[in-house]
Each structure stands twice: as C-alpha cells, then as structure tokens.
Amino acid sequence: MAERKQSQETIEMMKEKYGQVEMTTEQMDRMKSRMEKARQDKRVQKKKRMLRRINAAAAAVAAFILLPNLSGDVAYAMGRIPVLGKLVEVVTFRDYQYESERHKADIQVPELVADDALSSDTDHTGDAQVQENIKKTTEEINAEIQKISDQIVTEFEENKKDEEGYQDVMIKHEVINTTQDYFTLKLICFQASGSGAEWDYYYTIDLNTGERLELKNLFKDGADYITPISENIKEQMRQQMKEDDMMCYWVDEDIEEMNFKSITDDTSFYINAQNHIVIAFDEYEVAPGYMGCVEFEIPDAVIADIRK
Fold first, then answer.
1. The pTM is what?
2. HSE-CB of 270 using CA atoms within 13 angstroms
C-alpha cells in the first residue's frame, strides 16, 4: 500500500512538473503567432457562418412563398418535415454574475427545451414517441447541468469568505453540431484559484430516437471500437509532437503509469459537421496543463468496418 501511494505521488509530481514547463522565447513567439492566427480564423469563420445564414434564410423565405402556392400536396408535405434545430432549443436557465477585486464569476447555465414540432397524432405514433423521448432526455441532461453549476456556485460563494484568496470561475455553453441526426451541447467549465483548470461536458441527443447518444451506439454490436480509436489517438499524439516541439502528450513516457493507454465507454465525444467522431479530453487528462483541453478527430478509415 505504501509503495502504491509513493508511486502515485511520484506520478502526480511528474504531471505537475509537466504543467509548469517553461517555454523558450522562440516557443512563446510561436504560441502567440498560432493564437493570433486562430483568432483571425475564428473571425473569418464567423463571417462565413453569418453569410451562410443570410443566404439560407433568403432561400427559406423564397421556398415558403413559392412552394405552398404550387399545390396543396406540397404544402402538406412541407408541414411534415422536421424543422432543423427546432426539436431541441437552448435557453439560459440561470445567469450568475459577480465581480470584486479578488473574486469573479461569469456563469450562464443553459437549459434544453424540447420543442413540440413533432406531431402526437395517432397516425404518427413514431414521431410522438421520439418527442416523448426527447423531453425525457432533455430533463435528464438539464438535471445534470444544474447539479454541476450549483456545485460550482456553492464553492464560489464559500471561497468568497476567504478575504485573502483569489478566484475566477466561468460556465459557458456552445451548440457544437446540429444536423438532421444529432444535436450536441458543450458545457464549458473553468475554475481558477492560483492555477486554472478547464473541463467540458458533451451532451449529444440522437434526433432519430430522442435518446442520449453513447459512444457504443455508433458501432456494430460487439465491435471493439476502443482499441482502434485509442491506437489512432496515440499515433496522432506522436505525429503532432514530431511536427511541433511545443506539443506534449503523455505517451511513451518513461513512467508507464503516466501514459495514455485507452479511451473508455465514458470518454467524452461528439459528432462534427463532417459526421466524424471527435474524442475530447479535459486539461491534464492526457497532456500538461498548458495544452488545455485537447481533441482528436478520428478518420473514417480507422472505424469504417465497425461503424453503423
């Protein structure tokens, strides 16, 4: 027992050492350059998304003006098409703001709302069942989110009593992907008190069933998806470190216990716009703190034979 405890303490010390790694001036310049490029890319993408939305809105207006006037059958058919993004909506459930010289909180708690877009007529019992499942799923997700946010707010309020301490907390959310098949909400949590840490939660709803999507649901029954995905992630880690000396992952380390070995059924994931599986890790989970939260997009070829 003592040896195990000592080994664990050694691992934690090594991780802390990695988290406090010092960068050279050249490395810092390269990081700043990448950060600036990322900000520029984000602004460009934002403009592109805005233009796409404007064009899509114009096309939708034209369609709704022209098509229903062509025939009654077309108008009825349009009424039966599920409206993208209307099955699940996101609203702000709680907005908690606080700022003083030592303490700052920016907490916006989202809530998922199941829309009544699907019919509950007896002729469309399948639609009604999906809508019922979505309502149940959103209620479960909302309960989880509220529990997480309540705990963070409670800790923040308690730490405020420390007149010598500093803290900065944040909860934000982002709709990662909304397609005909999936809806994914990302909950972003950040806490800082001396040092900071970010961790994220991903909530994906299968809009075809109304149920919460698990990683195993994406693969054929009995298929081993954990091994090929884990090995591909290790390959990506090694390749990134080979191409950029600022990249650092806990793989192939001398202390075996530190190394990333495998994902699990509970590892965070989401489906991106290209229908690719993206595996997500929190800070310090597979890399030093300065790497932040990291993600790995899994190529289709890795899992083509076992994915549904």
1. 0.69
2. 24
